[in-house]
Amino acid sequence: MTDLDERIAQFENMAQADPDNDMAHFSLGGAYLQAGRAAEAARSLLRCLDLNPDMSKAYELAGSALIDAGWTDQAVETLEKGYLVAAGKGDRLPQQAIAKLLEGIGRPLPEVTADVEAKAQALAASGSFVCRRTGRPGTKLESPPFRGPVGGWIQENISAETWREWIGQGTKVINELRLDFSREEDQAVYDQHMHEFLGIDAALLDALRAETASS
């Protein structure tokens, strides 16, 4: 069994144990997508969106999975909705990624109305902390949870509530996979689970590492 297979099994267990946990379905969908299991990824990510329709990144990944599965009409519907959700929150990176997916299948971008733009501006002006992972208002972490660029990114983008939820899920990962942090490979497995749970994809991870290398 590969590391990816193990992660899929772990996330399947999490989703089955707590069917209303949007982040478990998000993580499972992301892992399925990595494995090239597009139809299963789409179903998991759409379930995530049923539970939490404010998660911009889930629209992006669900749209990608639906395209890969050949379900273009549903992909367009999902991506168009996600584009407007992301625009309304000022969530620019998922919005740009969704735009590329729509353009890639020859579809125009939906019009962002004045009401949607006003919503994004009001949210920015309010100073409210919105968790990038869930799209929900939350409490900002007082300090990075650990040193390094990823820890800094987590403080700036992940709410304390989401981080506490990861701690609970991470404990399950440690126990179920019998991870030993004195072994580098086990630490890497834990980090991979954490990155997937928090929505830190390979492109973002590379960008964070590049910023550190250039500083």
Annotate the secondary structure layout.
Blueprint: H1 3-17, H2 22-34, H3 38-51, H4 56-68, H5 72-89, H6 92-104, H7 114-126, H8 149-157, H9 160-177, H10 184-198, H11 202-214
Helix pairs in contact: 1-2, 2-3, 2-4, 2-10, 3-4, 4-5, 4-6, 5-6, 5-7, 9-10
- Give me the CATH superfamily of the largest domain: Tetratricopeptide repeat domain
Low-confidence stretches: none
When the domains are counted, the total is 2
- Major sheet size, sense and barrel closure: none
Radius of gyration: 17 Å
As a percent range, the share of strand residues is under 5%
**Oligomerization state of this entry?**
single chain
Return the string of H and E elements.
Answer: HHHHHHHHHHH
Helical/strand content category: mainly alpha
Shape call: globular
Could you characterize what this model shows?
The structure is a single chain. This protein is mostly helical. The protein folds into two domains: 1-126, Alpha Horseshoe (Serine Threonine Protein Phosphatase 5, Tetratricopeptide repeat), CATH 1.25.40; 128-215, Fe(II) trafficking protein YggX (YggX-like). The chain contains eleven helices and no strands. It has helices spanning 3-17, 22-34, 38-51, 56-68, 72-89, 92-104, 114-126, 149-157, 160-177, 184-198, 202-214. It is globular. The N and C termini lie far apart (39 Å). The relative contact order is 0.10.
Key terms for this structure?
215 residues; mainly alpha; Serine Threonine Protein Phosphatase 5, Tetratricopeptide repeat; YggX-like; 2 domains; 72% helix
